[in-house]
Amino acid sequence: MLLSASMSPVRAASSEAELARLYEFVESGYRQRTLPMRLRVAVSRRVRSLLGVSSPEPYEIDRASAPDPMAAVYLPNAADFFVPVTWCRNVSLFGFGPGAFDAWEATARQIAATPDVAASDTVLARFLERFVPTTAAERLFVDPARDASPGSKLHDISALDTMYFWPWATAVRRWPAKAPEELRLRSHGPVGERIVELEVWRLKRLVASVKENGYRPRRVDGIRGQLLAANGEMRFLIKSGFHRVAVLAALGHDEVPVRFANGFQRLKTLDQLPTWPLVREGVFTPREAELVVERLFTEDGSLMAARLGFEPHPAGEAPPPAPRERPVPQPVG
User: Fold this and answer.
1) CA 106, CA 313: separation in Å to the nearest integer?
2) Cβ-defined contacts of 198-201 (< 8 Å, 24+)
3) Least confident of 68-82, 194-208, 267-281, 316-330
4) Are 159 and 134 in contact (CB under 8 A)?
5) Measured at the alpha carbon of residue 73, what is the angle toward residues 95 and 86, in degrees to the nearest 5?
6) Do residues 190 and 175 make contact, with C-beta atoms less than 8 angstroms apart?
7) I want to staple 107 with a disulfide (CB 3.0 to 4.6 A). Which of 8, 124, 171, 291 is the partner?
8) Would you put residue 119 in left (φ > 0), alpha (ψ -120 to 50) or beta?
């Protein structure tokens, strides 16, 4: 489960243009943009320009008027609301904010302090070398031998061949054949050097943007997910915008603006467990599914950080610096 990758030959760092193309390839679901696809995009942009249709602009989210999370569940239309960073989870073993550990957040803190840090020198690079689960059980639990039953299917499912999945997922998703092994963006190792470069590049861009302008998402993107309630507590399960949460937590924000993800149930509760698809299919036993939920409330990454040789997010850090004031245009003449 905890491995140390051997050193590979030093490779020249990718250029900004190469990383931008790699980002496009990975985010498109590993689809190469063919000439017809590029032409369609170019024509679409030209038509939008002729019609005067502009791209969605970043906007300020009004904290004072935002509904509380439970009220947002029952609103008929999508609304921005705020959740504590400590509620946010991307996987079961790691969390965000003071006292917790997440390798992407720790790397964003590195970048904030040393913007030109090399990708190979980041916490993320070391984390992806050290945390290399081989089974789904090792990916889900701190102590898989204890938490997953001896005959559990989770011991037989490869962590390398499957994407991260929860008990309420509709299926165990496997990596598509078109996704090159060295370019698979996993939440753990092993990953290729170019993916480490890409992830650090993304974090550097986000850190610089938030420090310069504050966090101002566009309405078409942002942090999206769903709520999980159990035993009087809440978690926000991230569907998209994970890098944004990592950067905001790294820069000292104690809460983040979010929306519910389209196409997903807004609120999950433990009493729904018998109906969850992967429980019904026997991938998780009811007890294993209950333990996954329990770990989301009792694990924050600090235990795994200690095992892997990392420090959690320090408590009591100063709040983030205010974004620079934007110059006010002055009239001419």
Assistant:
1) 7
2) 198/14, 198/19, 198/22, 198/23, 198/26, 199/104, 199/107, 199/119, 199/124, 199/243, 200/107, 200/111, 200/117, 200/119, 200/122, 200/124, 200/125, 201/16, 201/19, 201/23, 201/119
3) 316-330
4) yes
5) 15
6) no
7) 124
8) alpha
